């Protein structure tokens, strides 16, 4: 079967090689001829070039494809996706053909494009995670929609995707553009977990005086057990790296954190949908805050060491707190997906979603099995829950900043302790007469519940 792939950047090139290696015949195009030449040379060195046709224009690409056609887009998200879709229409793509947007597109654009192109071709969306390495050897693939063209592609994606216990990490998770929503939330969780690990590092480094290499050892020991995850493993590796002058490599890196936008979209969507994901929002804002600090890493460190208190940590408690906080970051992301699915009627399957995250993606972790057990499982984790509370308290005492750790503790505390919402409702009614509801469900005003009507002026 012939499939076309447009966009031979890092992800496109590696996915192309993966697909060809699995037996697919690929027609590939990139507006930069060097990218095509590079892919061809990689395919030649792997001995698979006979199944690769590099074309120099989209008309030639369309002509070479069997009908109905299948085209994968791996171009940067945004206007370029529409530009390529338009060019493909002009090149001859027609009804019955499928175009799959495999970039990090905003799901709202996906919904709009489905509508826009419905009479031209089938527009489908798929989020891909795992970076270059994943695309080359097995990514996580979060697809969506019920376009007929999927049937032609699914067997290939099931083959190229990562596997976990023999099961593919490709899935059509739900309707419409929900695949891109799921990938967006994947990235929101990714931001939170990265920040949480950075906070563990800082607590161990500044709070207990460990060197980066010693923190690397702590993370390594955690990785050897059920806490093993991709992000923890790479963090341990990064912290163990030293320059030629035996300096920790992390100390040579500027503290300002970049972002391409998917974490921010996650936070924005959660706020719009009214679904609380405080740890995910805190991680986005933590990145923003790094851009307001204008001092080099080493200087900040000296200042921090002067300004903070050392902490007497129990490493087992820290590990438990980290485990519990990590579970809660995933839970918030899943709650967001569930809420969005309900609002948009996407019918997202959370088990399938979790299956796509089990291998190949950036947030893969051995404890995803625990997350699959559902929210009830969290209730059984009294020890880790207590550890999170204690560690969050100690972290605050250190004087350092722990936005994700403390937001996560606040999240679980809010869900599991008496609420104070009644007072806020009363305040709203007091000055705005917005109305309140009593425990028996009766709608009324504060003044209906009391004889006292003197107001504070
Ligand atoms: C992945 C990653 C990948 C990328 C994101 C986040 O799943 O492979 O999430 O998509 O790292 O674009 O990047 P930023 O941190 O720059 O927002």
UniProtKB/TrEMBL annotation:
Major enzyme class: oxidoreductase
Database matches in InterPro entries: 6-PGluconate_DH-like_C_sf (IPR008927), 6PGD_dom2 (IPR013328), 6PGDH_C (IPR006114), 6PGDH_Gnd/GntZ (IPR006113), 6PGDH_NADP-bd (IPR006115), NAD(P)-bd_dom_sf (IPR036291), Pgluconate_DH (IPR006183)
Top-rank taxon, per record: Bacteria
A Gene Ontology molecular function term of the record: phosphogluconate dehydrogenase (decarboxylating) activity
Keyword match Oxidoreductase: yes
Alphabetic keyword roster: Gluconate utilization, NADP, Oxidoreductase, Pentose shunt
Protein EC: 1.1.1.44
Pathway membership, UniProt: Carbohydrate degradation; pentose phosphate pathway; D-ribulose 5-phosphate from D-glucose 6-phosphate (oxidative stage): step 3/3
Residues annotated as signal peptide: none
Keyword Manganese included in the entry's annotation: no
Domain 6-phosphogluconate dehydrogenase C-terminal: 179-443
Catalytic activity: 6-phospho-D-gluconate + NADP(+) = D-ribulose 5-phosphate + CO2 + NADPH
Family: Belongs to the 6-phosphogluconate dehydrogenase family.
Database matches in PANTHER family: 6-PHOSPHOGLUCONATE DEHYDROGENASE (PTHR11811)
Physiological role: Catalyzes the oxidative decarboxylation of 6-phosphogluconate to ribulose 5-phosphate and CO(2), with concomitant reduction of NADP to NADPH.
Assembly behavior: Homodimer.
Name recorded for this polypeptide: 6-phosphogluconate dehydrogenase, decarboxylating
Organism of origin: Pseudoalteromonas viridis
Encoding gene, per UniProt annotation: gndA
């Amino acid at each position: 079967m012939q499939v076309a792939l447009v966009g031979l950047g890092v992800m496109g090139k590696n996915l192309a090689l993966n697909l060809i290696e699995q037996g697919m015949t690929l027609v590939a195009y990139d507006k930069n001829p060097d990218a095509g030449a590079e892919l061809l040379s990689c395919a030649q060195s792997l001995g698979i070039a006979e199944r690769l046709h590099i074309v120099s224009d989209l008309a030639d690409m369309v002509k070479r494809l069997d009908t109905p056609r299948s085209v994968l887009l791996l171009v940067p998200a945004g206007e370029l996706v529409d530009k390529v879709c338009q060019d493909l229409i002009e090149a001859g793509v027609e009804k019955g053909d499928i175009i799959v947007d495999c970039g990090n597109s905003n799901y709202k654009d996906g919904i709009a494009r489905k509508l826009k192109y419905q009479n031209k071709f089938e527009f489908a969306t798929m989020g891909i995670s795992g970076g270059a390495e994943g695309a080359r050897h097995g990514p996580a693939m979060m697809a969506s929609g019920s376009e007929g063209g999927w049937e032609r592609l699914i067997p290939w994606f099931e083959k190229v995707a990562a596997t976990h216990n023999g099961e593919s990490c490709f899935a059509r998770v739900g309707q419409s553009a929900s695949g891109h929503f799921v990938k967006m939330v994947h990235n929101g969780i990714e931001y939170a977990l990265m920040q949480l690990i950075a906070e563990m590092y800082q607590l161990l480094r500044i709070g207990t005086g460990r060197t980066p290499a010693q923190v690397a050892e702590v993370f390594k020991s955690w990785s050897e057990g059920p806490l093993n995850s991709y992000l923890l493993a790479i963090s341990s590796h990064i912290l163990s790296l030293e320059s030629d002058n035996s300096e920790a490599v992390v100390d040579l890196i500027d503290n300002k954190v970049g972002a391409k936008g998917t974490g921010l979209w996650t936070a924005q969507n959660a706020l719009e949908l009214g679904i609380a994901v405080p740890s995910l929002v805190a991680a986005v804002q933590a990145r923003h805050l790094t851009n307001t600090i204008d001092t080099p890493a080493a200087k900040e460190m000296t200042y921090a060491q002067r300004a903070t208190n050392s902490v007497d940590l129990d490493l087992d408690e820290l590990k438990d707190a980290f485990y519990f906080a990590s579970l809660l970051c995933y839970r918030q992301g899943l709650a967001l997906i569930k809420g969005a699915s309900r609002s948009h009627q996407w019918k997202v399957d959370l088990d399938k979603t979790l299956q796509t995250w089990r291998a190949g993606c950036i947030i893969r972790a051995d404890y995803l099995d625990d997350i699959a057990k559902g929210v009830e499982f969290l209730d059984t984790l009294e020890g880790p829950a207590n550890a999170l509370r204690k560690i969050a308290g100690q972290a605050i005492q250190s004087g350092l900043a722990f936005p994700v750790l403390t937001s996560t503790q606040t999240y679980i505390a809010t869900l599991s302790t008496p609420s104070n919402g009644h007072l806020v409702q009363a305040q709203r009614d007091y000055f705005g007469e917005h109305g309140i509801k009593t425990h028996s469900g009766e709608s009324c005003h504060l003044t209906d519940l009391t004889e006292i009507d003197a107001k504070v002026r």
